[in-house]
Sequence to fold (488 residues):
Amino acid sequence: MGFYLLRNRTILKLIGLLAGLLLLLGSARPAMALGDNIFDELTPKEIREESYFRLVDEQGELITLTGRRLKVGDRYLAADNRLYEVNTVDQYTARARFKEKVKLKTPPESAGQSLPTLSTQFLSSRPTRKIAIYHSHNAECYVPSDGTESVYGHGGIHAVGRAFRDALAAKGIRVLYSDNMHLPHDRGAYRRSRVTASYLLRKRPDAIFDLHRDAAPPETYSLLMDSEWLTKIQIVVGQDNPNTEVNQCFAFDLKGYSDRIYPGLVKGVLITPGDFNQDLSPLSLLLEVGAHTNTKESAENGVVHFSDVVAYYFYGPDYLSGKAPTDKVDRRTPPPALYRDTGGINRALSGTVLGFLIAGLGVALGFFIINEPQALVKAKNFWRELPERFSRGGRWLRNLPDHIARNLKEYPGNLRSSRQRLPEEGRQLREYIRRRASELSSAYRRWQSRLPDHLKSNWNESREDWHRQWKVARRLYLDLRGRLLPRK
Fold:
């Protein structure tokens, strides 16, 4: 018995130690704006009632419809590359003012030039020819094809993700695709999918995409191209992360390339509060492939066309034909400098933390050898990976000054944007509380008005029931007395 008690205590200590190590390794999430938590997407009831958000210009002309809650300070790059900024929101109508006509980067005229402008600015080595794909909201479906807008499980959006994966793989691009579940469909899904995104980024992809679908009327996303129906794609960029400027530049570049080879495929770029895990990598984007009212097949066609845009952007026009160039990737080449700058999940490590980590891992290995049959095999695998862990930590330290300088440069703009959004979000919170209080008050008044009738009805029913029970009891008593007492 003592041996088993000792073993259980040892296992509990080991679990506590591993939990502490995970806390050391975990990267702290940046604080999110209030609106990012409670005012993001429409509720299922609003979607069923078709209460979509309307984005209109200063003349009242419709720019787009969306299932995302638009807020003051949101920016939207429309299909014609006109950039708007929301200045007022009234119910489900967001009015935006025109800011500028954006000149997007387009593919180079020379067929031999393959790297885009963003890559030449941030990358110091060759691409890895890997693209990562995952789904934060697994439940999203397409009503015409799936029969429902959402399921508790793998929704129709996964079929769209697989179509994207297969189209890229057919071009010779290695695809890191994850169909991990992050249910339920709520704001916590991004926190749960952060683990998946971090895992995929450890494999050093050139870019990572989170696939979703929007909520809007079908004509908002429908597109007829070469006698084939497909859905347009909307790119979403989160404002609440230090990579916002690069994320936005990446999104604008992809739209420029798309406009060149498939005009109209990318319907716009929405820049809204939130991080959507885009703080993990500057080349991370959220894609909304069609709406719930479009067919799943048209969404698959749309994302297959978008795979040409991604392949062209990163690897050049040779990949449009579906055949990868013959040159091989040099596996000894270090990963792109873009990822070394961001650091990913290793950005919280320092020399001191590494020292504690090594000591803790030594203790953990001792516990493993005693309590785990496969401890030695796991230990060997860990030591094989240890040099790469040290290498990533050294790269992070070398790029720390540039990372701090970029954050300091972007901080005033992010702070100013958050301060501008704060009054509107406070107003929306007050309206939300007032609306909920009004609903509760109305429900209470209805209950209070019906209370006397309920009490009277219950009293009458109880009295009748008691009367019936009394009759039954009296009849039983008389019958029993007649059987037991002798007759005179």
